[in-house]
Amino acid sequence: MKTKLGRSILVLLGALAIGGVARNAHACGGAWVPYLEDNQVDYRVGGVARAEKAFTQGKINASAASVIRMMPAVRHMNAKKSKLVARAQRMLALAVARSDGALPIGRGIPVYIRGSWLGKSAKDRKANLAWAVKVLATIDKTKKHSPAAQTDLAEAMARVDADKAQARRILEKLAKKDLVATPEGYAALASLRAQSGDKSGGRLAMKRCKAMAGHPAACRIDAKS
Amino acid sequence: MQRAWHKLGLLCWTVAIALVAIACTGRSDPPRKAAPATSAKPAPGATKTPVDTLPAAVLASLQKAGDATRGRKLVQKFECNRCHDGTGLGAARLEMNCVHCHQKILAGTYKKAPASAVRKWKKHVAIMQVVPSLGSAGKRLKREWIARFLLSPHDLRPGLAPTMPRLAIQPAQARDIATYLTRGGKRAPALSLDSADAKRGRALMEQKACGTCHRFSGAPALNVSPAPGSELASRAIALAPDLRWVRDRYAPAALVAWLENPKLMKPDTLMPTFGLDKAEARDIAAYLLEAKLVLTAQKAVPKRLPLLARRVTFEEVDQRVFSRTCHHCHGNPDVALGDGGPGNTGGFGFFPRGLDLSSYRGVSGGLLDIHGERHSIFAPTKDGTPRLVAALLARQREEAGHVDADLRGMPLGLPALSSADIQIVASWVAQGRPR
């Protein structure tokens, strides 16, 4: 009986501790943005910037792992409330899309925050891709459908069967005005054109991807896409 | 007893759940700071401005007075107070005020960024440290000249970079702004300088060492005395206009009054009061207004360099051009302090162009036209030159006095890029813009 009471007291102490931590947090579940006093530093600002630099250098998975380590609850954060969260989620969402929902970052993040990011089951991979599309759609809306946001969204949609037609529409519209913002966007367009039987169109988009890409991996067309 | 233990346990659990619930949902957010967020006949002897390409009908229209109330609103719209003091609006807040911000960075008193960032910025804020105040313009300057200058800004002060931007101002708007800026000033009474001695005026200028601060291009060079090494003297030299433009800017009576006691007309001027009497002031005025000027050699348009055969990547273009020159006005509001700059989210009377030159994605994403349509900045212009390159070349031509009415030179209000830098950009575009 005393053990039961001891456990209850422990739970009470735990709850008190959570209350203490959460006092400095913006909210649970939504945008977890810690409130900082004037003399405090939010190290995630530099962290996200470094992750973005790594991302542009082609270290996609490393930057995705870094985002998960910095923001373990990133999946549930609200990008509308924080530009920093939006930037972090964008990188992660693109990494998820480019890995077809299975981030190859097993060693990059501790086991207890891995969640379903590794996409071990088809269900997890599908959920991850759906999350990526949702996040990029939110950013696209916030950014008033800027070509950069549209390209990211279409790239992710090109990985989801149900969204492929829409992805093609977006990319064709951008390509017509030379506004596809990334080589990966052209790679996705090449893939979508090839899948619909437009082989010469696919080759043209791939040529554009190769001209824009800094590293050949950017133009890799996954068999699944 | 057992029931009592059980009740105590239940109470603990209930309190624990309530505490977690309060922590997660019930707390109000602490107040958060807002994100931290420049053909009327010209007057006798007037010099033709090298970049004055204004049609005669426009010049004629500038002779008429405009509407000062509208002018004030336009000064607000074009955000003249982001660079100039003395607009009658009060200075723009620090994040929006080019000059005050640069001054604070240079003085090391800018507190809204880490010291390391301020140290880094110091190297890039050489320009826009001093800008002329617009105060008391009505007492000194010709209204028509202000309107002309707004429509066709040119290099007026040899000691300063020509940073007055070519704004999107219509002639009627320029007239209204000029009328507002010269409000309260009376038209200078006609004054004949026929009896004045221009030769003596020249001698007086030599005696007073006017050439220490001023250049008088087109006239025989004035003698120069060693300038005191103070910060004030440096500012005075930077702000001193080329005297070539005096005849365009001043009416004779206003010029004489200015020479007699400049501080009476503009209390914050750095022009010294030399204690000239009326006759001396008239003699100097006669020389300034009547001296025969030789046409100064027009700046040549730099020669364009051929495309490079070697590979040029975005990283090189970014380091050489975009991050050094363009980011400040075409930034990313998500990353940089402030609002993304006038070239992205709008400012200086320009509507938001949505152009972000701070990343490859942004550069590739193009800009908005006045109808809200997106276009690539690499789209070919009439002669096939990519638009970005055409804008950079246009700025070189603007500096040489050739203004293209349909194409605003970039960087706006900053010195033109060198031909070598433009070569890098053009080569990168021609190579398919590799990332």
Question: How would you describe this structure to a colleague?
Answer:
The complex is a heterodimer of chains A (225) and B (435). Chain A has 225 residues and is mostly helical. Chain A folds into two domains: 24-120, no CATH class; 143-225. In chain A, 60% of the residues lie in helices and 0% in strands. In chain A, helix 3 crosses helix 4 and helix 4 (83-98) crosses helix 5 (122-142). Chain A is elongated and about 75 Å long. The termini of chain A are far apart. Residues 16-34 of chain A have low confidence and may be disordered. Chain B has 435 residues and is mostly helical. Chain B folds into three domains: 56-181, no CATH class; 198-290, Cytochrome Bc1 Complex, Chain D, domain 2 (Orthogonal Bundle), CATH 1.10.760.10; 314-430, no CATH class. In chain B, 41% of the residues lie in helices and 1% in strands. Chain B is built from 19 helices and two strands. In chain B, strands 1-2 form a two-stranded antiparallel ribbon. In chain B, helix 3 (68-77) crosses helix 8 (171-181), helix 12 packs across helix 14 (278-290) and helix 15 crosses helix 19 (419-430). Chain B is globular, with a radius of gyration of 28 Å.
Give the arrangement of secondary structure elements.
The complex is a heterodimer of chains A (225) and B (435).
Chain A: H1 2-22, H2 43-56, H3 60-70, H4 83-98, H5 122-142, H6 147-157, H7 164-176, H8 183-195, H9 199-212
Helix pairs in contact in A: 2-3, 2-4, 3-4, 4-5, 4-6, 5-6, 6-7, 6-8, 7-8, 8-9
Chain B: H1 2-26, H2 56-61, H3 68-77, H4 98-107, H5 115-122, H6 137-140, H7 143-151, H8 171-181, H9 198-207, H10 231-239, H11 246-249, H12 252-260, H13 262-265, H14 278-290, H15 314-326, H16 342-345, H17 360-364, E1 367-368, E2 374-375, H18 387-399, H19 419-430
Antiparallel strand pairs in B: 1-2
Helix pairs in contact in B: 3-8, 7-8, 9-14, 12-14, 15-19
